[in-house]
Amino acid sequence: MTLTDFRTAAASTLAGAALLFSLAACSTPAASSSSSSPAPAGTTSAAADAACTSGVKVIVNSGALKQTATDVAGSCIPVDGPTLASKVLEQAKVTVAGTKAYPKDVACRVNGVPAADFDITHKGGTYREDCQKMPASFAYWSLWIKPASGAWGYAQEGLSTQKVTPGQSLELLFVVDGAPAAPAA
Prior knowledge:
- 17% of the residues lie in helices and 25% in strands.
- By secondary structure, it is α+β, with helices and mostly antiparallel strands.
- The protein has a single domain (3-176), classed as Beta Complex (Ferric Hydroxamate Uptake Protein, Chain A, domain 1).
- The model is unreliable at 1-48 (pLDDT under 50).
- This is Lipoprotein.
- Keywords: Signal.
């Protein structure tokens, strides 16, 4: 196998993984309330989850980027059955931009983060996301899902095909060099 073949295979594998995390969350999204506002400050996670049994709790966490301007803290989006993750995010007013190669399945920028001129610091130096192909394997938005009474898991599909159901939570989490490894409990 040539280096070019290896890179093509690796890119293809990363594309599949990004589809999973493109807002990757297929383990178990937690529940949120049926209102579209965040849980009140001081509300425990269990209480907030219990309050969103007729919707999907949406969380956006810039994680390693620490850019809280993009973060969404637990909006509950009402749904009455299996609903595409992309539709739930749209209803939560979360803007997701894909890549040129994967415009609907991969999350490249969420609410404008990371900006095209933003230097992402990672163990190999700095990187700027151009949103052309797959995001870098060391700096990307991951998609997670959590059932009402379960653990977080990576989404198994891309944003345009992954479905979530009432009582689940959906989180977009930005990961740099493998951290954070998963959403907070």
